[in-house]
Amino acid sequence: MKSNPLRLLLMVLMLGLPVKPGLAQPVASPAILSEPGWSAWRPRAEFAAAQFSSGFSNSELGGFMDFEAICQQSIGLPNEEIDYWFRLSRLVTAIGTGRVEYGCWQTGEFVHTFSSTAVRTDLSEVNCLKVNTNASSGLVIRSEPSSRSAWLGGVRIGGRVTPSSFPALILNAEGRDWIAISNPREGWVSVGESPVGPINLSLCNS
Fold it and tell me: Is 181 exposed, middle or buried (0-12, 13-18, 19+ CB in 10 A)?
């Protein structure tokens, strides 16, 4: 029996399964797309309500301008008429710094996307994170963002660390997110397995 693309899409939506752009059946809106470790896609009109800011370096600002220019060129519409969307990584809520991904949407798919650092605007600065790992020994401080790098010390459960900068410097390596810290000593600690493992840190005032 021949499959019906519309019926298949309806079944996927009812089951709550993620739907990716580029499938034979176009997706009406990116709001129904989902991916572990990320919030739902939201339209450009909700930028301000999401309480985040991005673009903290010349390279990120230049990259965003290039992204907009490519979207305009590909879609053939003025910038204000393009259907822009965004989503935030789970770390933005958990520790105040993470990633934002922007996308320009047309005919059922993202034509282009761009990712950069994002921070919560309801936090003037993040200078304290609390260790809440499931590991009974707490967190190990490493010389580099790698479990194979030198051991520099540790932080007990309930202890506090200070990110080395704001926005925090976060790198992904070995399937984990790592954050650079300056206190109790300079080094790196694991934020947690990405994209869906437990997060080892939380805001001190949360």
Answer: buried
Q: Rounded to whole angstroms, what are the CA distances from 44 to 76, 91, 122?
A: 18, 21, 19
**CA gap 192, 133 in Å, rounded:** 8
Assign 104 a pLDDT band (cuts: 50, 70, 90): very high
Share of the chain above pLDDT 70, in %: 87
Interval 89-96 mean pLDDT: 97
Residue 123 token pair: 């936090």
